[in-house]
Amino acid sequence: MNSNMTPINNQTLVIIGNGMVGHHCVEQLTERGALAHYQVHVFGEERQRAYDRVHLSEYFGGRDAESLAMCEAGFYEQHGVHMHLGVAVLEIDRERKEVVTSEGRQAYDRLVLATGSYPFVPPIAGADGNSRLVYRTLDDLDAIRAAAKGARRGVIVGGGLLGLEAANALKSLGLEAHVVEFAPRLMPVQLDPDGGAALKARIEELGVRVHLNRATSEIVAGEEYAYRMNFSDGESLETDLIVFSAGIRPQDALGHNAGLNVAERGGVVIDSDYQTSDPDIFAIGECASWKGNVFGLVAPGYTMARNLASLLMGEPHESFIGADMSTKLKLLGVDVGSIGDAHAATPGAKSYRFNDEVNSSYRRLVVSPDGSQVIGAVLVGDNSFYDTLLQYAQNGIKLPADPASLILPAGEGAPALGADALPDTATICSCHNVSKGAVCCQVDAGCVDLGDLKAATKAGTGCGGCSALLKQVFEHELSARGVEVDKSLCEHFAHTRQELYGIVRVEGIISFDELLTKHGYGQIGCDICKPAVGSILASCWNQPITAPSLVPLQDTNDTFMANMQNNGTYSVVPRIAGGEITPDKLIALGAVAKKYDLYTKITGGQRIDLFGAELHQLPDIWGELIDAGFETGHAYGKSLRTVKSCVGSTWCRYGVQDSVGMALVLENRYKGLRSPHKIKFGVSGCTRECAEAQSKDVGVIATENGWNLYVAGNGGMRPRHAELFATDLDDQTLIRYIDRFLMFYVRTADRLQRTSVWREGLEGGLDYLKDVIINDSLALGAELESQMQLVIDRYECEWANALKDPEKLKRFRTFVNDERGDPDIKFVKEREQRRPLQAHELNLIPLAEEAL
Amino acid sequence: MIEHSQSAEQQSVAWRVLCTRQDLVANSGVVALLDNTQVALFHLPQYSEGEQLFAVENRDPKSGANVIGRGIVGYIKGDLVIASPLYKQHFRLVDGSCVEYPEQRLRVWPVRLSDDRVEVAIATE
Question: Quick one: which of A140, A139, A189, A135 has its CA closest to A162?
């Protein structure tokens, strides 16, 4: 620990490199208030601001550069950081303490190198143009995409982590993908021979061809394809393009040319405080070499960035002590994990192995010579073992009596490592360095919500790999403090919402009383279980919520099919599907609003909200709206609200599909679907995304070939970007996936749980969800679709239903023994419309009296 | 049928007709005017201890809005309650006391069904 550097005001700090690590450093500096002490200049060679390189392959799955960006567009400006994008630094003039760029000179007091690395391309005769592509930047990906046009086959040279990622990218471009590896196995750094074999078997099953023990001697013109690669053993392979992914090299040229010490195997030499051989110059991330090692993962880069930010601010900081290179990945959909000493290189180390050649699953557990501790592991095919093994290895936890049980298939009674077995120092989230102790601190400070915990600590918000463990530790700590993590709905039902849903479905229960009698306790129910069960019954059977047996279950908004406001009046929102409305209907809406003097406001969901209606006015208002061709908008329900759309290809010069048409189809299909919480959709006609579909529960964005589907986004209190779920879908497939997605959500979510929170709690995450919806792994697809069809077939406008039945309208009376309205409801005029009189304004003259 | 009027009979009271049984909504509430006071009426025709009728003040003390009659009837920890539709606090139907906030309270009236007439008791001078 050192803390003897004091920041001096108005120094200039220059950061070269705007990749993930460089960006993280800026973020950490701004959080620490560095802009009060430093003028900060950031130089980035690429045109784009920092983006998520870890998820680069998603660029071919439909994500654009903007959605991969590490921060909002205005982040740097807002914080007063001087950003120079697309400006390469040519030289560091250490004597004058200036950097020389293509734009001129910039003085510095302190300089940070975060220049990253570049792909290594072995010198092979004939490698050029499309036979010498690399996979590192967005520009590289654009080049690969261009080369893939009209190509049939692509080769990746290099069977390591990045090479397999790149193979996935070629596959998603529709090419036949081949991997050529020099070593006798795939991922030679992380995997042992058996693990490599299992991985090879798995990815060949997915259609990727693997060629091992191959050294390319030259590239010449091909006969059937554009190129032919000749291997040193006399074999050859033809292909249309070649991507080199044979490792990375530190981008250390600037440091080297400036005379800084550079390590033998590359990388600007740093000490444990990130200092290079020049005390005013620091280096972090993949361009730095610490004790002869370069760390090519994002987590150690972040650690360096974070600690350096503290150091530059004169705060206590941690010195670098090396980094755990354990990794957990999904390559081409195949789980791969490598922990610590995966090759059992430690003298005397012993191994347990589980090798299932039938299913190509492999696991190896490496233990210390005395057999007491885990020192390494290799996993192929199933990473569910990873978290537990990593905790054993990182925290030196004593092995159970039968260590082999840790890697045996489930069902063999493997002792799960409980959250209580972890020491306080155990790292839960390595991206943001959050320990179990830090989680405990938050719980002690009163945090009882997982979302709040993530917001406060950032845990689980990096790669997300620790989500399951985080939740487990959090719930354990809550229980330990006596906070109930009881999943019972309320005192009437010792079931979760999901369980009640299953019971209602399986037993065909159609009333609350029947459910309470058969599966509940006590009588009557309460304001928790009644609306929840009301919603379940509606999701399953979609009977009109105005039925006498269902009315008492509903919250006031559902009971009166309008939204209660703070003075007891209601707002009325007719459906305006897709935000499309004719002038005549707009006039009709205006006429109703004018007649009943309703405060009128456009909503965020592209419709119109009419406020200030009293209970007894609702039937008259709705009678007029229905006559004008409107139907209920379900703004009061936990149900589909709106499908927001942009104008699409019909009018917009950029549009590639008819987004309004699709929005209408979707809104009319799912209107009236009752769900655990409200559901919002968005449909955009092109990638510019004017409908903000990525902030919706279901987002649909047009592509030239169809539609990209996004799910589980959210605006509101805890915004969440929707995740790309499937790409280039035709209309039928899009609707089938949405049918299944919504019904699966309705079936499994908790009460009042939005899709975003539900999705974050799903074990197995997005991949699991894709498996269920796209691959139909639970064989539920047909059932979910038919359940949705029933809801759709039974759709009826609830207001039209109520207006037909005088018995149902009986409830819509402010007083059952008087025709008048509520005399306590008073309005005043503001901006030419009426609004409720506030309590502190009682001295003002209300409108009603003014009229007298 | 339970009448919440045990003590009312001894005092000098008058029974005032508010509405009829047909105006009530089963397992839910309606509101009637009693001079200038708003009375929420809750009807539970099939309660285990027999048919129940309650008359409580319609004004929600927290919001000041007249909305209690539009809340959800429930049974929590042994008490029949009404949940305010705006901020969801619960009031016991028997005596109008609030489960969560002792300082809040609803006025209650003795109420009965006389043939099909719904009647509440008011004190007379």
Answer: A135
| Pair A110, A41: CB distance under 8 Å | no
Asked if the C-beta of B72 comes within 8 angstroms of chain A's C-beta atoms, the answer is yes
- The CATH number of the structural domain formed by B13-123 is 2.102.10.10
- B93 at the A interface (CB within 8 A)? no
Of B41, B74, B86, which has the smallest distance from its Cβ to A524's Cβ? B74
Please tell me which of the candidates B28, B65, B71 has its beta carbon nearest to residue A566. B65
CATH of region A11-117+250-312: 3.50.50.60
The nearest CA of chain B is from the CA of A726 a distance in Å of: 41
- pLDDT exceeds 80 at position A466: no
DSSP 8-state assignment for residue A404: G
The domain covering A418-485 belongs, at the CATH homologous superfamily level, to BFD-like [2Fe-2S]-binding domain (1.10.10.1100)
Distance from CA of A845 to the nearest CA of B (A): 18
Distance CA A124, CA A132 (A): 9
Whether A511 has its CB under 8 Å from any CB of chain B: the answer is: no
Enter the DSSP assignment of A704.
Answer: T
**Higher pLDDT pick, A550 / A761:** A550
Q: What sign does the CA torsion over B42, B44, B45, B49 have?
A: negative
**Residue found under tokens 């360096």:** A304
B32 vs A527, A556, A816: nearest CB: A816
Residue A505 class from Cβ within 10 Å (0-12 exposed, 13-18 middle, 19+ buried)? middle
The whole-angstrom separation of Cα B31 and Cα B50 is 22
The two tokens of residue A107 are 């003085």
Write down the CATH superfamily of domain A129-246.
FAD/NAD(P)-binding domain (3.50.50.60)
Phi-psi region of A220 (alpha: psi -120 to 50; beta: other; left: phi over 0): beta
Average pLDDT over residues A807-836: 90
**Beta carbons of B80 and A524 less than 8 Å apart:** yes
ipTM of the complex: 0.90
| Residue-level pLDDT at B60 | 93
Q: What is the pLDDT of residues A380-431, one digit of tens each?
A: 988 888 888 888 888 888 888 788 888 887 543 344 456 777 778 888 887 7
**How confident is the prediction for chain A on average, in pLDDT?**
88
Residue A653 in contact with partner chain B when CB distance is under 8 A: no
Weakest-pLDDT range from A1-5, A599-603, A743-747: A1-5
Please report, for chain B, the start and end positions of each structural domain, with discontinuous segments joined by +. 13-123
Q: Which residues of A touch B85 (CB under 8 A)?
A: 555-557, 564
Looking at residue A532, what DSSP letter applies? Answer: H
Residue given tokens 């039968």 in the structure block: A402
Residue A607's identity, in one-letter code, is: R
Residue A329's beta-bridge partner residues? A336
Residues of B in contact with A822 (CB under 8 A): 38, 66
Q: What angle (nearest 5°) sits at the alpha carbon of residue A348, between those of residues A342 and A349?
A: 30
CATH 3.30.413.10 is the classification of domain A638-807:
yes
The structural domains of chain A, with segments of one domain joined by +, span 11-117+250-312, 129-246, 418-485, 497-554, 638-807
- The answer to whether the Cβ–Cβ distance between A525 and B63 falls below 8 Å is no
Q: Determine the residue among B18, B21, B25 to mutate to test chain A binding: the one whose Cβ has the most chain A Cβ atoms within 10 Å.
A: B25
Tokens (6 digits) for A358: 């039938």
Given this chain, do its domains A11-117+250-312 and A129-246 carry the same CATH topology? yes
- Confirm or reject contact between B39 and chain A (CB < 8 A): no
Q: How far is B74 from chain A (nearest CA, A)?
A: 4
All residues of chain B having their beta carbon less than 8 Å from the beta carbon of residue A530 are 72, 74
Q: Sorting pLDDT into bands at 50, 70 and 90, what band is A661?
A: very high
Could you tell me if B31 lies within 8 Å of chain A, comparing CB atoms?
yes
Half-sphere exposure of B61 (CA within 13 A, CB side): 16
Identify any residues that bridge with A501 across adjacent strands, giving them in sequence order.
Answer: none
